[in-house]
Amino acid sequence: MTPGTQPPGHGELPAALSADAGATAGWPGMAADMGGDRAMFRVPWGKAMMWIFLLSDTFIFGTFLTGYMSVRISATTPWPNPSEVFALTIAGTTLPLILIAIMTFVLITSSGTMAMAVNYAYRRERRKCALLMFTTAAFGAMFVSMQAFEWSKLIEEGVRPWSNPMGAAQFGACFFMITGFHGLHVSAGVIYLLVVARRVLAGRYEGVGADGAGNYDIVEITGLYWHFVDLVWVFIFALFYLW
Amino acid sequence: MQTPSIDAATGDVAAQHTQHPLGLYFKVWGLLFLLSALSYMVDLFQLQGLLRWALILGLMMAKAALIVAVFMHLRWERLALICVVIVPPLALLVLAGMMVLESDYVFAARTLYFR
């Protein structure tokens, strides 16, 4: 979009399609309802759409975690102790869950840098904003790398989606599905962040918007997605690793 | 804490970009670090029983609330949006509750007949 370009106007709708044509039935009526340009939330449309997408994602992760809970409660074979499964021996001392704890701190830190990026976007300091977004992406990449390490370690120890040598066979299926789906979200988020950060740096969002002061809503929208990824990890950390 | 500066005359969206001092984000960041560290301690000290569960779930909800309210700015959003985001997940809690009962029953049935 070139600077100064306005979204197509909705002022020139034919009379039959205008929002007050309440009596119009059939397809024209539906088109009038859907295209009536009535804003329910009074927030930028992209932000409302991201929230609705995240709500749908909440339901996916929610059902995954609920399914995992059901499977774990109803398993008659003992569930492996995550504290031991995910322990690492560093310099002769075995630390329980240490890798997961580090991953948690990395993701929280990335959320912090993202929140700051949004702040700088609205201050119109696009270099700082882009730099913070690149930092966020780097922390995200770090998280995925540690997850890759964790996966390889477990696969090496014989954990499979259908079996594992430590106890209940359902453990593997739950582990690979839940952490895999979350890791996929993080990976997609890293790409999303890199794309938007590059555009911010290139000045694509300068000079657009109603007042020509630049429209940096996209940074906040990207931020919503990224914070959500961190949010989901809070639940996975508590329900999968601490249980 | 600042309240959103909504342009009273127009209800303008652009006027809604609440500016916060960076210190707020550092505070929340630090708090999230602390809460995560406490969650980790729960496992490190191998607390058990009701105490363990109260701590795990309580710390989880506190962290989630901080992220959604401050980092995702939901605190400063319009009530319509807050309701759209907060109310539907309550349905998930109902589902989780029903599944706890169901899986307890499945466990009982398995122990009785299939073991």
From TrEMBL, chain B:
Q: Transmembrane: is it a keyword of this entry?
A: yes
- Give the superkingdom in one word: Bacteria
Where the protein is mainly located, per its record?
membrane
- The name on file for this protein is Cytochrome C oxidase subunit IV family protein
List the transmembrane segments: 24-42, 54-73, 79-101
- Species this chain originates from: Pseudoduganella chitinolytica
Q: Which UniProt keywords apply?
A: Cell membrane, Membrane, Transmembrane, Transmembrane helix
Q: Where in the cell does this protein reside?
A: Cell membrane
Q: List the membrane topology term(s).
A: Multi-pass membrane protein
Q: Which Pfam families match?
A: COX4_pro
